Amino acid sequence: MHIEKNVFDNIFNTIISMPGKAKDNAKSREDLKEICHRPELHYDLVSKKYPKARYALDKQRKQVLCKWIKELRFLDGYASNIGRYVDSKKLKMFGMKSHGGHVFMQ
Q: Would the pTM of this model clear 0.85, i.e. be above it?
């Protein structure tokens, strides 16, 4: 169950582009050159940056996601209040327990 929580954290932090916690970094982008052919994700020599991935959310979509999670309700005894783990101002999740990650992924 803890492995599932770690997988959830890695996927969620990558999708919302959490600085320092996302698994989409310069090293992984360099590995993409060798593993698969995705030229749209390679380093841009003009802007000196890596382009944003398609799966990464922009600020507006992060706000929509955080609002949806905040309003999410479950049956009594099924899961804790997942909305309390969301920080709408910083657009991130924190402190979710293993069972909460399991329920969210289900």
A: no
